[in-house]
């Protein structure tokens, strides 16, 4: 290879960002990590033609076939990460869920929603900065479909799949400003009617919020879950179910759910449940990070990662300091958490004592696990929260390669559709969505955030650019 034709990476990627859609580009000399098959390819070349990967090749290549060459020696290239559980209708700030902690005397919910609606470009950018080139919003108001439309028309945005309002066993009137993100359904007939209404918007998923408590036992909502799933499948739409108890998750799968979001946190999963998930080819998204963020925020023990502190929205992060809220405006839940911070941590630890072993058992059994964060909930930061999820998956006992599989090839399966069929892998004909790292994530999953450049749809966004 003629060294004069190889452009230094710092200069080359800047040119790449401008030229990718007009000429062929080749990333030369990197170690390519393809979690889809677990292969690690040193001294590899990825040829990108427009917005697609033309080919992945090893060793010396014919320079005439490579177009503009970008030197990536010493770098590590992966498919773009995918966060399969986010909520665009929530900001992640302290005021985004008044049904959980009513702080509307400090910030009215209408003001919060207006802020959220004005910030999609900022949120999109923070996902890309984190190497996340695709996201799945698993539930929000009907304006979620406008978010998907905006993302599709925005170059500096991840690919977006969305569900509409959550079909729920409980009501959340505090969130209803005329376009509620959560809708209580009381009969199977209502469920079918609402699915038809959703189907008109061409959702990527239908979401069931299967909340169980003493007033809402598992069996009471089961007929509605059945009707929702059956009607959705009739419209060729997959169904994701929020289910955090073993029996709730079991019921959801038995009724035909395609995806489980959240971990089972009330008891260890049993052999029959594992067998059921495997037989039905269920995808499970564990969302480990969200389980700690409410309690840690409310007890003033928030453990944001360096990535979240650097790449999260600073206004959102600043809001999470509960000690700045006047005492007379603090809801009782936060007062209780501040009064006994150890109890808050104990509750979190008890959750992880169940959730982490459950994740490891399901991973070992061959259940498809897709990485997701539930970003947008209080304290769970849009974009970089994924790296805390990686840490928790490591604590569960997953290897770096398994974690990367969860965030790429497995996550693409959850994304679904034509898009999901062409992301999550580095293969001929796949979308040119890539993350270039400066250090090896297989040595330490913390290196997954050591980002040099993010490439989405063939366009490069260097990490050190002022564009962020």
What does this structure look like?
The structure is a single chain. The protein is α/β, with parallel strands linked by helices and 468 residues long. It is built from 17 helices and 19 strands. Strands 1, 2, 3, 4, 5, 6, 17, 18 and 19 form a nine-stranded mixed sheet that branches. Strands 11-10-12-13-14-15-16 form a seven-stranded parallel sheet, sandwiched between helices. Strand 14, helix 8 and strand 15 form a beta-alpha-beta unit. Helix 6 runs parallel beside helix 7 and helix 13 crosses helix 14. It is globular and about 70 Å long. The chain starts with 5 loop residues before the first strand and ends in a 6-residue tail after the last strand.
Strand count: 19
The protein's oligomeric status is single chain
Query: End-to-end distance, in Å?
Result: 34 Å
**Beta-strand percentage?**
15-25%
Question: How many alpha or pi helices?
Answer: 17
The unreliable regions are 1-12
Tell me the helix content.
25-40%
- Which fold name corresponds to the CATH topology of the largest domain? TIM Barrel
Main sheet overview: 9 strands, mixed
CATH architecture of the largest domain: Alpha-Beta Barrel
Global geometry? globular
Rg, please? 22 Å
What's the rounded overall pLDDT mean?
95
Structural class: alpha/beta
- Please name the fourth-level CATH homologous superfamily of the largest domain: Metal-dependent hydrolases
Q: What is the name of the CATH class of the largest domain?
A: Alpha Beta
Number of self-contained structural domains: 2
């Amino acid at each position: 290879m003629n060294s004069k034709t190889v452009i230094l990476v710092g200069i080359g990627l800047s040119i790449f960002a401008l030229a990718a859609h007009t000429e062929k580009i080749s990333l030369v000399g990197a170690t390519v990590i393809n979690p889809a098959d677990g292969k690690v390819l040193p001294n590899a070349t990825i040829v990108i033609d427009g917005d697609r990967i033309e080919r992945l090749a090893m060793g010396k290549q014919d320079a005439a076939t490579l177009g503009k060459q970008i030197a990536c020696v010493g770098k590590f290239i992966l498919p773009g990460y995918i966060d399969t559980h986010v909520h665009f209708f929530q900001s992640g700030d302290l005021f985004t869920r008044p049904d959980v902690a009513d702080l509307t005397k400090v910030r009215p919910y209408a003001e919060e929603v207006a802020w959220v609606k004005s910030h999609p470009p900022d949120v999109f950018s923070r996902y890309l900065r984190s190497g996340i080139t695709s996201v799945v919003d698993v539930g929000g108001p009907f304006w979620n479909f406008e978010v998907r439309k905006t993302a599709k028309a925005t170059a500096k945005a991840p690919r977006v799949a969305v569900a509409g309002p959550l079909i729920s066993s409980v009501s959340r009137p505090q969130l209803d400003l005329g376009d509620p993100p959560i809708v209580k359904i009381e009969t199977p007939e209502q469920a079918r009617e609402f699915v038809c209404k959703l189907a008109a918007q061409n959702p990527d998923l239908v979401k069931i919020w299967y909340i169980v408590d003493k007033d809402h036992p598992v069996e009471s909502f089961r007929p509605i879950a059945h009707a929702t799933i059956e009607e959705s499948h009739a419209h060729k739409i997959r169904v994701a179910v929020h289910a955090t108890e073993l029996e709730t998750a079991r019921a959801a799968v038995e009724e035909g759910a395609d995806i489980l979001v959240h971990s089972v946190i009330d008891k260890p999963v049993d052999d029959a449940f594992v067998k059921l998930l495997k037989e039905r080819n269920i995808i499970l998204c564990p969302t480990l990070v969200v389980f700690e963020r409410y309690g840690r925020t409310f007890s003033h023990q928030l453990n944001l990662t360096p990535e979240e502190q650097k790449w999260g929205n600073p206004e959102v992060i600043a809001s999470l300091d509960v000690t700045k809220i006047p005492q007379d405006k603090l809801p009782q839940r936060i007062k209780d958490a501040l009064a006994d911070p150890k109890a808050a941590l104990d509750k979190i630890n008890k959750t992880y004592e169940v959730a982490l072993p459950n994740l490891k058992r399901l991973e070992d059994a061959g259940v498809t696990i897709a990485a997701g964060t539930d970003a947008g909930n209080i304290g769970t930061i849009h974009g970089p929260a994924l790296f805390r999820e990686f840490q928790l998956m490591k604590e569960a006992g997953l290897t770096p390669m398994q974690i990367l599989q969860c965030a790429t090839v497995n996550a693409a399966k959850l994304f679904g559709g034509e898009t999901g069929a062409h992301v999550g892998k580095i293969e001929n004909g796949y979308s040119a969505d890539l993350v270039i790292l400066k250090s090896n994530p297989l040595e330490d999953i913390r290196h997954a955030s050591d980002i040099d450049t993010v490439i989405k749809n063939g366009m490069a966004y260097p990490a050190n650019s002022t564009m962020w």
